[in-house]
Design brief:
Layout (H helix, E strand, L loop, with lengths): L1 E6 L4 E6 L6 H13 E3 L6 E5 L2 H15 L4 E5 L4 E5 L2 H9 L16 H4 L3 H15 E5 L4 E5 L8 H17 L18
Antiparallel strand pairs: 1-2, 3-4, 4-6, 5-6, 7-8
Helix pairs in contact: 1-2, 1-5, 5-6
Length: 191
């Protein structure tokens, strides 16, 4: 059985098999949206940006594999990054799957239970995509490490610690020993 959702004035049709099951591709999609993407509140559409053409192609492949459509892409010459815009109905479907809507720096983020309690493959797919977008590698004579940081409004830093703790718990559960969480001081605070 398939359910068909009409997208954007009938221009696209996606097929979602029911019952819908969470999987590694959906977990990866959430990681990318929490990283360098968002679901815009006003327009209610998914938006993903990145300077890496490889990550843009990965994001587009995930959308194609999950929903059977090829999202639009643009290169922003002024800001020197790629932008991907899947159809609006996909955003509405993703919100139902627990994806956050709106500006990530101005809200408390949570990781859906289907990821926190998911298989190691689901957890790994989520973490890999999130770290592809927000991670940094420090590789010098004194230090070899992978860092992860996200900016937040000062008023949300305490609540954001729960999100970061969830990430640490996921890392522990897949055999990675993360360092403690700390707040990095800058004009807008981050962890």
């Amino acid at each position: 059985n398939f359910a068909y959702l009409k997208l954007y004035r009938g221009q696209y049709t996606i097929k979602v098999e029911l019952p819908f099951r969470t999987n590694e591709k959906l977990a990866s999609l959430l990681g990318h949206i929490l990283g360098d993407g968002c679901i815009k509140t006003k327009e209610e559409n998914v938006y993903y940006t990145n300077k890496s053409k490889d990550l843009i192609e990965e994001f587009k492949t995930i959308i194609r594999d999950l929903f059977g459509i090829s999202p639009g892409e643009n290169f922003n010459e002024k800001r020197e990054f790629y932008e991907v815009y899947p159809p609006k109905t996909i955003a509405k479907f993703l919100v139902l799957c627990g994806f956050p809507k709106g500006e990530k720096t101005k809200q408390v983020l949570t990781i859906p239970d289907w990821i926190k309690n998911g298989s190691n493959e689901i957890k790994s797919s989520f973490i890999r995509a999130l770290f592809d977008d927000e991670g940094t590698v420090l590789n010098n004579v004194k230090n070899h490490s992978i860092g992860f940081c996200m900016n937040k409004k000062n008023s949300l830093l305490e609540a954001h610690k729960n999100f970061m703790e969830d990430i640490r718990e996921i890392l522990f559960s897949i055999g990675i020993q993360p360092n403690p969480i700390f707040v990095r001081k800058q004009p807008f605070d981050s962890m």
